[in-house]
Amino acid sequence: MTQANELTITEARDALIAGKLSATELTQSCLDAMAKAGELNAFITETPELALERAAQSDARIAKGESRGALEGIPVAVKDLFCTKGVLTTAASHILDGFVPEYESTVTENLRNAGTVMTGKTNLDEFAMGSANVTSYYGPVKNPWKLDDGKDRVPGGSSGGSAAAVAAHLSLAAIGTDTGGSIRQPASFCGIVGMKPTYGRCSRWGTVAFASSLDQAGPMTKTVRDAAIVLQGMAGHDKKDSTSAPVDLPDFAAAITGDIRGMKIGIPKEYRIDGSPAEIDAIWRKGTDMFRDAGAEIVDITLPHTKYALPTYYIVAPAEASSNLARYDGVRYGLRVDGDSLDEMYENTRAEGFGDEVKRRVLIGAYVLSAGYYDAYYVKAQKVRSRIAEDFKKAFAQVDVILTPTAPSTAFAIGEKMDDPIAMYMNDVFTVPASMAGLPCLSVPGGLGDDGLPLGLHLISKPFDEETLFRAGDVLEKQANFTAIPAGWGAGQ
Amino acid sequence: MSYLIKGETADWELVIGLEVHAQVISNSKLFSGSATSFGADPNSHVSLVDAAMPGMLPVINAHCIDQAIKTGLGLNAVINRHSVFERKNYFYADLPQGYQISQFLHPIVGEGMLEIQLKDGSIREIAIERLHMEQDAGKSIHDKDPRRTYIDLNRAGVCLMEIVSHPAMYTPEEAAAYVRKIRSIVRYLETCDGNMEEGSMRADVNVSVRKFGETGLRTRTETKNVNSVRFMMQAIEFEAQRHVEVWESGGEVKQETRLFDPDTGETRPMRSKEEAHDYRYFPDPDLLPVELSEAQIDAIRSAMPELPDEKKRRFMAELGLSAYDADVLVAERETANYFEIVAKGRDAKVAANWVISNLFGALNAADKDISNSPVSAQNLGKLLGLMANETISGRIAKEVFEIMFETGSDPEKIVQEKGLKQITDSGAIEAAVDQAIADNPDQADEVRQGNGKAIGWFVGQVMQKTQGKANPQAVNKMLRDKLST
């Protein structure tokens, strides 16, 4: 029999409505799974008491016929980048030691109002900087997918804890944030669905900032439909975030019709990278075939500035990060390491509080913004960014959705690429261009790579056209019929 | 305009540029809902945004934008339809974000012009480079503890306008007139209260000197912490003198930021934390550019009050005031309003004279200002009316004014109660004149013998007998008639 924690949101919702399952039972089954999954290190903070309290409230509302909808009583794990009132919030950084916010991020507040039950705060790369969840002050997260070689795999990053939690059925859903691929790449590595909405769809208020012009919260789920349901609960205009878009929320799940006949799917030739493994080409071809079989029209397109996206991203994102992280100075909250002067206190605090990758990006960011280099790097990068956005705009005059691989490989072993930041940065080569253009994207499990680990397919659509994305993603998901589950985390184990 | 410093080797002239920081009048801060009122308990007006808590985002206060546009229009400046808030990055304990949100490459207000009037009556136009908006930092308090610094974030995030002039002033007097003029305009517009003592207006002073006849600019220094016009003039004079001495002794003036010490009247280099900053400006990704519509600017323009220059011209052209009187009366909007009420339907020059000499004199002596004047504009107007229709003489008017100033009473009531109404009844005047002549036969003879001065003495006698209520012209005429030979 399927355990409650292994249900999809849609299944759990039906069971809750039918009275076959209570929110408390559902939550308890997730908490039990979490208790057994300590080795994954998916959570920085677990909040079982709070979860059961909220589950009881959900049950009370359901009993009174006052259910708040599809997300009532659904356990959701929250990336520890979202500030949560009364619950330790770390961004996986030593520098936020002991920081307990007195406020709730808009996204988690929205989810709470929709009836969800937060089960805990998931691990991540420090300040969301990383693609393998190995830069966390709280240690690396292990991918629940294992191979016989005995080596632990990374879950991807930065939302690695969230991805691992969903893949290992520790939670029905999780939320993450995506700056250059931080939802989609771990979704690909862990065999789940990961969705980055259009920039401005979800409020950034109360989410620890990495790169403000790129950061966007999104759902990580077991199915595309679940992603649509969770996004519905997270998104919406927020006056507290000036970059939040004042647009109405459509009914995302209603867009899932199963019918994509006549839909135009673009295949960008620039995403074929020299030296890319055959398994990546294979999964991409498989995706193309599945769309064709479902009645979509395949169109070859060009996105000529693609190759500049990654280098441009590694100017813009660190520039913003270097400034966003200036507030962690030991003066008002978090870690303080004393010194004999104010400057010394800053130096001691930041030297001890930030990990190597964060320091690297702060340094890169300060460098590209500094006098004499600003025009050559930052200004130039902004110009390239506009070109990248124009590429997509032109492409979307021809097609409805663009299909690419999500990541250039399956999950690699913990410890690999650690001494080669560029190799690590390459993880986001397929996800970054759409991030630079602020476009909505979805990663759907497409199949397994040669090594038996999951590989995602990446869909991109027009700004604020998440509906088309969900409709296409759902069809792809059904075609792929991805049923593999990580060994050791399946039913009855 | 010539202000030359005599050096050993040459005459030196002075070049001044000013950056005036004006705190915008608004209920809440530039990017948060915290209150802005002065004098609250430390850290009582601090929001999560002001304290730069993780994940907090700024939201532009639209009222502050309107205030900046209004000020820009008041400075006859170009309003930029597109402007951008940028981050100025530096670390300091009273700057919670680690950056100040300011405008850099794209300020909201561009080139403008300000007219100033100098003591010699000449008028100069001072070119303004820009006005940009920025958030204020908090306050560091160093003297409460030997080891620690206390931080008060009440001011952190309050909206400032920085008004930057071109290096286009050449004397301390011009700089003073410029600052006073800006103060006057922002007070008219109610965009800043102009209070330099409380720090809601402060000036950074850029000074350089050059040999008379040189056209280029030499190295300048920037002096901060100048919180009165008088101090600013002192700082300029001190710096100018210091520059001349440095150049003449073969040295080179260092470009640096200096601090003015009001106790000594001198400037000194600021602490090293200010040295060699690279602020790494870049557009704040948390904020969208400010896009203004022509309609929005027009709406603000059409609601602009009459400003001092315009008012001054009107006072001179329509009311016939002198440039000096008009200048004095328009400097403060409240004074100008007061004057206009007094002068309405009356002789404007007389009204100006009474406001400037009598009222200001009394207010100064009593350490009051026009806002708490015991004499209302309506009452002063009535007093002038009583003089104009010859109900009282000018001398009695001064007496009545003193009572008004003490009691705040209506002049008509005072005149009534004290029986100060001028005697116009010629019978009563004649009786007093006859009496005076009869009482002083010797003096009468003197007048008859042609001593014109003695007639004044008789007028005084009669006025005394009538407690000043007789019309002095009537008395004078009657005395002349009776004592003529």
Would you mind describing this structure in some detail?
The complex is a heterodimer of chains A (493) and B (485). Chain A has helices at 9-17, 23-36, 48-63, 106-113, 160-167, 184-190, 224-234, 278-293, 306-324, 342-353, 356-369, 375-395, 421-425, 432-436, 466-480, and strands spanning 43-46, 75-79, 117-122, 173-178, 193-196, 216-221, 264-268, 297-301, 401-405, 441-448, 454-461. In chain A, strand 2, helix 4 (106-113) and strand 3 (117-122) form a beta-alpha-beta unit. In chain A, helix 5 (160-167) packs parallel to helix 6, helix 7 runs antiparallel to helix 15 and helix 9 (306-324) crosses helix 11 (356-369). Chain A is globular, with a radius of gyration of 21 Å. Chain A has a domain at 4-257 and 405-480: Alpha-Beta Complex (Amidase signature (AS) enzymes). Chain A has 15 helices and eleven strands. Helix content of chain A is 37%, strand content 13%. Chain A is an alpha/beta fold. Chain A has an eleven-stranded mixed β-sheet, sandwiched between helices. Chain B is α+β, with helices and mostly antiparallel strands. Chain B has three domains: 4-299, no CATH class; 306-418, no CATH class; 426-483, Arc Repressor Mutant, subunit A (Orthogonal Bundle). Helix content of chain B is 39%, strand content 19%. Chain B is built from 15 helices and 16 strands. Chain B has helices at 62-74, 172-189, 229-248, 294-302, 308-319, 323-330, 333-343, 348-365, 377-388, 394-407, 411-418, 426-439, 441-448, 453-465, 472-483, and strands at residues 4-6, 11-23, 82-83, 85-89, 99-103, 112-117, 123-135, 139-141, 150-152, 159-165, 201-211, 221-226, 257-261, 266-269, 282-283, 290-291. In chain B, a hairpin with a 5-residue loop joins strand 6 (112-117) and strand 7. In chain B, helix 6 (323-330) packs across helix 8, helix 9 (377-388) packs antiparallel against helix 10 (394-407) and helix 12 (426-439) crosses helix 15. The radius of gyration of chain B is 30 Å and the shape is elongated. Chain B starts with a strand and ends with a helix.
